[in-house]
């Protein structure tokens, strides 16, 4: 399903959506959580990114699994180790981006409704910022390990 796009391996093409959308969601959600004056301008961006980033991360993971199965299933030695390391970040990245997306949607609701009270608003905002950091960590680790797997060093 996600093996090729126009004859090229899909994974190197699909990952760009995750590499762009995840940090954008992380920054937009964190700024929305921490800077109330920006909320009117950022609300729709956070909403759109919270909906788009998790499927992009899932598609990147799935296309990577298909690339490995189709072209690198017998890779051994140093390349096999690098691919395994890169693959190990796939599921945590998808889970982190999914969690950030869901919590960002919850944050939008809580902060717009203004009926849950300050402690709930602080907790949801703090959780959003924490998950933003976790998602960025995993997208950087996955990206770096993928680059090392391809380019070495």
TrEMBL record:
Pfam families: DUF2231. The chain crosses the membrane at residues 13-34, 41-60, 89-110, 122-140. Residues 7-151 form the DUF2231 domain. The keyword Membrane applies. Keywords: Membrane, Transmembrane, Transmembrane helix. It comes from the Bacteria. The keyword Transmembrane helix applies. InterPro entries: DUF2231_TM (IPR019251). This is Membrane protein. It comes from Planomonospora sphaerica. The lineage of its organism: Bacteria, Bacillati, Actinomycetota, Actinomycetes, Streptosporangiales.
């Amino acid at each position: 399903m996600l093996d090729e796009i126009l004859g090229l391996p899909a994974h190197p093409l699909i990952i760009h959506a995750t590499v762009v959308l995840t940090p954008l969601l992380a920054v937009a959600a964190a700024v929305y959580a921490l800077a109330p004056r920006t909320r009117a301008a950022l609300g729709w961006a956070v909403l759109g990114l919270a909906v788009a980033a998790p499927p992009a991360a899932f598609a990147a993971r799935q296309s990577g699994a298909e690339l490995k199965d189709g072209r690198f299933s017998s890779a051994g030695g140093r390349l096999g180790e690098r691919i395994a390391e890169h693959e190990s970040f796939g599921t945590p990245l998808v889970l982190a981006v999914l969690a950030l997306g869901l919590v960002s949607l919850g944050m939008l609701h809580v902060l717009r409704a203004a009926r849950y009270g300050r402690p709930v608003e602080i907790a949801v905002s703090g959780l959003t910022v924490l998950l933003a950091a976790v998602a960025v960590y995993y997208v950087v680790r996955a990206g770096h390990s993928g680059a090392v797997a391809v380019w070495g060093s």
